[in-house]
Amino acid sequence: MAYTVLSLAPLPAELVKLLIQQTPGVPDFEVVAGYGLSDEEVRRCLPEADAVLGDYTFRHRITADLVSGASRLKLIQQPSVGYQHIDVDACTARGIPVANTAGANTESVAEHTIAWGLCLLKNMLYAHACTRECRWEQMSIQPAELKAKVWGIIGFGRIGRAVAARLKPFELGRVLYYDTQRCDRLSEEEFGVEYSDLGGLLSTSDIISLHAPLTEDTRNMIDRAAIDAMKDGVYLINVARAELVDEQALADAVRKGKVAGVGIDVFSREPIRQDNPLLALDSPKVLLSPHVSGVTAEAAGRIINMAAENIARVLRGESPESLVNAV
Fold first, then answer.
1. Which CATH number fits the domain that encloses residue 264?
2. Phi, psi at residue 193, to the nearest 5°?
3. Do 183 and 44 have their domain in common?
4. Among residues 119, 154, 70, which one has the least CA distance to residue 260?
5. DSSP classification of residue 236
6. Are both 172 and 64 inside the same structural domain?
7. Is 291 in the active site?
8. Dihedral angle, C-alpha 183, 185, 186, 187, nearest 10 °
9. pTM here?
């Protein structure tokens, strides 16, 4: 019996099949291209699907109603770290494993974070703009050094640790981290970090980068009160989830000078809309990017190969890896 893989990703079915076939011992299967289908058409396809390759553009939401008839489904494989468009609880209730590609973009996001920290401190966007206009503002750019600064990391999982590792050569004064679980002393020594409660990290850090997952505890954790608790002139970098931050409160803080600059890669509505308060800020120290910190060519390759290998694993009758639910 041939298996069926429903691909909701914007990739040719032929390419998806070739990627899955790279893993030896995969039984016969077909790939159905589902990205261009309507929700109703996807619903009709799901009862015949043994595995689903999710949509990394998040256009196709996987809801409880959608999976209600997916009796053959052995895996929903999301080709990204984020999976907020999937009703994981509904999948769990129906015994459907859901997996992501955790760790595939760690290096990319960590590098993006460091790059933004340096750009903000060095005031690079302003330096570039005024030089292109033949304005020789050598004394007004006022770049600063990363050395001896205090960097606060909120969320000390894969990406938070990768950021800490990349900060070591810069000889910072301190690298603080806050997480719901403190890591062991040997790991703290390895990464050159000190544990801090959230309040201490906010009030002490010159630069704060966010790498926490979105949960009910972390939602809106950087609100007006948290921003008020920060050091004056702090820089904030968010490459995690937009919902960690109150965007309006952050925009107000930048406008007032409480926050000296920001690097934001994630937004409450994506694609970003004109009414986003961060777009109204006229400052060379407001750096915005379209959720691209983890979308390097190298990360994309790791993500799609990891996803394809996991689907192949399930088609061979093996247990999937990188599950986000317990079934």
1. 3.40.50.720
2. -120, 160
3. no
4. 119
5. E
6. no
7. yes
8. 30
9. 0.91
Question: Residues 59, 81: one domain?
Answer: yes
State whether 117 and 16 are in the same domain.
no
Q: Are residues 200 and 62 in the same domain?
A: no
Do 160 and 284 belong together in one domain? yes
- Per residue in 137-148, pLDDT (tens digit) is 999 999 999 999
**pLDDT for res 1:** 65
d(CA 236, CA 201): 12
Number of Cβ atoms within 10 Å of the Cβ of 2 = 8
The catalytic residue among 270, 298, 318, 321 is 270
Q: Are 40 and 294 in contact (CB under 8 A)?
A: no
Domain holding 309, by residue range, is 3-103+298-315
Listing from the earlier edge strand, what are the strands of the sheet with 3-7? Answer: 29-33, 3-7, 51-53, 75-77, 98-99
How many C-alpha atoms does 82 have within 13 Å on its Cβ side?
23
Residue recorded with tokens 């509904």: 90
* Residue 69 sits in the same domain as residue 182: no
**Number of domains, the chain:** 2
Residues 272 and 168 occupy one common structural domain: yes
Q: What is the pLDDT of residues 254-300, one digit of tens each?
A: 999 999 999 999 999 999 999 999 999 999 999 999 999 999 999 99
Q: Angle between the 297-315 and 106-122 helix axes, to the nearest 10 degrees?
A: 160
Domain assignment of residue 65, yes or no: yes
Among residues 211, 241, 309, 313, the one annotated as catalytic is 241
Catalytic residue status for 270: yes
C-alpha distance from residue 186 to each of 189, 191, 260 (Å)? 5, 9, 34
Q: Greatest CA separation found in the chain?
A: 73
**Catalytic residue check, 30:** no
If DSSP codes are grouped into helix, strand and coil, which group holds residue 214? coil
Rounded Cα distance between 319 and 306, Å, is 14
- Percentage of the residues of the chain whose pLDDT score is greater than 70: 100
